[in-house]
Amino acid sequence: MTTDETVVPAVHRTARQRAREQITTELLGAARRQLAAEGAAGLSLRSVARELGMVSSAVYRYFDSRDALLTRLIVDAYDALGATAEAVAEAPESTAEAAAEDTGDLARWVNTARAIRAWAFDHPHEYGLLYGSPVPGYAAPETTVASGTRPSRALVGIVARAAAAGRLAPPSPAEAPPLPAALAAELEALARQIGADAVSPEVAVAMIGAWTQLFGLVSFELFGQTRNMVVGNAALFDAAVTRQALAIGLR
Question: pTM here?
Answer without folding.
Answer: 0.89
